[in-house]
Write the structure tokens for this entry.
Amino acid sequence: MEIGFMKTILIANWKMHYGPMKAGGWIRAFRRERLPKDLDIVVAVPHVSLAAARASLGRASIPALAAQDSFWTADGAYTGEISPAMLLEFGVQYSLVGHSERRIYLGETDEMVAKKAAALQAAGIAPVICVGENEAQYKKGEMAKVLKAQVTAAIANLKPDGKSAMIFAYEPVWAIGTGKACPPQAAKEAHEVIRSAIQKKFNSNVAEHTRVIYGGSVDANNINEYVTTTGVNGALVGGASLDPRAFALLCRTANPA
Ligand code: PEP
């Protein structure tokens, strides 16, 4: 399968760090750094910090804003949830869906992930769908089986194209926050599995033009190995995005131009 040209995307995932008091400082410090132009740079902030991040950005569009999760209806009796329509009020362009921490700690299922992804896309927000095998599945050689099932379920109600095109993040659970990054060649194989599930549901053109990014212990020292690997269109970065200067360095390393 030929992979079409797609701009590399780097997404910072703060996870449950930085409330509104600190979010603006991160954005301002990051924007003072030299930032490469040929990348899509995104920051996924906690819901409560979206307003502060937006205020610090003003009209600036770098980094773009992402949410870390979103519910599947526009409004209703769903105490504690946040809808895509609400996220749009902050100019959110992307939202993570099905991060393994949500699947593990909050029992998020493939069915919920599919409903969330479809609702985001319908609202005009690009879903960044996180998939990946856990350590036991990895050791049993079940990476492809797990990814195929997760991807197939997640795209059940998605449309292949449009402004809010889906993005997949391959995040092997055993590589997240462990310092044990998945070797780029193994990530490449996993990305091929993801693309072939997309191809089966849609067609090869959609599979070739869907961005698939890698996440799991990425930092400024290893980012280059990923973004230069065929079929890897960027990275989702947790721990190494918490320091705005370190994340800016990671962005420059990924795109030295
Ligand atoms: C993540 O949580 O999405 C992630 C990739 O974390 P880390 O970079 O810390 O492994």
The two ends are 28 Å apart (CA to CA). The CA atoms of residues 192 and 231 lie 7 Å apart. Residues 9-254 form a domain with the TIM Barrel fold (CATH 3.20.20.70).
